[in-house]
Amino acid sequence: MVCGACGMAADVRAALEDILAPAGLTLAVLKAEGRYVEDVY
C-alpha cells in the first residue's frame, strides 16, 4: 500500500515500475491481483 500526497504517489509509482520491470511485473498486474493499493490525497 502506498499512502501519501498525490505528487509523492506519482514518484513512488515511477520507482516501482522501474523495480518491477526486470521481473516482468507491472503495477497494473499487481493492482488486478489485489497486491498493490494506493491511498492518495
UniProtKB/TrEMBL annotation:
It comes from the Bacteria. InterPro entries: FNR_nucleotide-bd. This is Sulfite reductase (NADPH) flavoprotein alpha-component. It comes from Paracoccus chinensis. The lineage of its organism: Bacteria, Pseudomonadati, Pseudomonadota, Alphaproteobacteria, Rhodobacterales.
